[in-house]
């Protein structure tokens, strides 16, 4: 490990130096993952009277080290923390209540559960990580001996105790017995590494030194070799079927993401996969994200039964009345699929994947070169999974958005109504696969739940490929919005042009029939309430002169909606159409064209935009809001419908 400390920086106090060191730690995924690890610094706190209090600034709950700022640290009085540490017994819930009440700034975040441990360490600055190389050493049958072999007597070694008051007391007991003038760090078995010093820089550099020692020892004694592996092609319906079974087990639609990188391919090809993958996580706090073990293969029913047995064996360990969490796996390893990560949201699935990508090389290295991987016993893992403090964190996240776990596919997603519909569905919690011929589609939204695929909807191969990419990213398709379409040149029948006619029909109707053909198997496997919304046009009930190609293509599209509604009802798939009109914030309407049309009617542009019975401005967002509702359970009893979104048209009425 190389030090990344920026020597050119100067800091406005110890806290800001701690922020810099924390970010360096958080930026290295081999040290901490997704909220893991914590840091602290002891410094003065000035209250409103001007009095200075000796305080511990400790990383607050909910902050990630990679992006933490000064407000992410909670200041607490050292004297109060020492007083709490001297108690003989203190429950974790009472400890956290006392820490919360002790905050010198009531607006600061809730302090870390390891606050008392940080306070007890007699150094100003503390850095703590869950480094991969450290947990490689500690997840061995002789882990204690290996740690001492690598670091010698200059590192304090603490047996595993769950974080909180009991861990702080154990460190207070063992620290004096093992500390010496050369002590440079502390290893918590099956947990991680602490380093400390008078400054954050010193504590960080000590971390670098100890991690480097472990890296060098492992390189010499347990060289990492990436196993070769090759995964077969898999039909996307197999992924959708697995997602459906997992979602049924979870009693909610789930996102599943397929991973097929070389590391995964080599891992799932191992002869001992079933044994090695099910020995437990690198550190107990991972169980919150990945469950105790992955599912090997695709037998969800057997996995659920196994989880139920695990819960029954350990339920008595709960300090309060427990409710069993959903028994669905969060990681699946399968010789054909590779690895599937699972979550209620795309972010949750990605976090589980990150953790397991770090787990695989540790498992293989320990098993192949260090005498075998051995995690903590299941009772320790259960204690962490059902720890009231961890459950409280999950509860603080609140209820998921209404479309969480659902996957939508939107065509024409780079602009206009398609883009607005994509934004609407993302805001409701859905993951969205966006198709558009524009290359801008890949970057329309910058979030994990968005996958933009540049696609010509008239190219069936490209459409099938885009759907495959979307299913591998999110697991299936539950919702669809057909928004891709063109108006074509305005041309009266007397000036009919066959090529223009064919182009409009190819995009507006033929491509949709092809899309429906590819979507139906996936929609029928949806674990949610599958639904399709098609953007048709006011020109269906009220065609205009010079728009024969557009009007007939949209009329045919509406008829296709009705046929699909008839054919797909048995699968529970709803199919409806909306007829927008005068939506002026799309690429079709330029400033010049609007001015020209307004002048033709002797109106201002604003008056022209509101030229409907309700005198309202119909926007892409207006249409998207209706589409979002139409796809939701609010319209669970509606299919084959046609809904105008035009402010009221006297031509239609």
Q: What would you note in describing this structure?
A:
The structure is a single chain. The protein has four domains: 14-221, L-fuculose-1-phosphate Aldolase; 236-396, L-fuculose-1-phosphate Aldolase (3-Layer(aba) Sandwich), CATH 3.40.225; 407-583 and 618-645, Rossmann fold (3-Layer(aba) Sandwich), CATH 3.40.50.720; 587-617. It is elongated and about 100 Å long. The protein is built from 23 helices and 18 strands. Helices cover 42% and strands 14% of the residues. By secondary structure, it is an alpha/beta fold. The strands form three sheets. The protein has a seven-stranded mixed sheet, with helices on both faces. The N and C termini lie far apart (72 Å).
Q: In short, what is this structure?
A:
Helices cover 42% and strands 14% of the residues. It has 23 helices and 18 strands. The radius of gyration is 30 Å and the shape is elongated.
Chart the SSEs and their pairings.
Blueprint: H1 14-26, E1 38-46, E2 52-59, E3 73-77, H2 78-85, H3 92-102, H4 115-120, E4 125-129, H5 132-138, H6 143-151, E5 155-158, H7 165-178, E6 185-188, E7 192-197, H8 200-221, H9 236-250, E8 255-259, H10 262-268, H11 273-276, H12 287-290, E9 295-296, H13 300-314, E10 331-334, E11 338-343, H14 346-369, H15 378-385, H16 388-396, E12 407-411, H17 416-427, E13 431-436, E14 450-454, H18 460-474, E15 479-482, H19 498-523, E16 531-535, H20 548-568, E17 574-580, H21 591-600, H22 605-609, H23 620-631, E18 642-645
Parallel strand pairs: 5-6, 9-10, 12-13, 12-15, 13-14, 15-16, 16-17, 17-18
Antiparallel strand pairs: 1-2, 1-4, 2-3, 4-7, 6-7, 8-11, 10-11
Helix pairs in contact: 5-14, 17-23, 18-19, 19-20
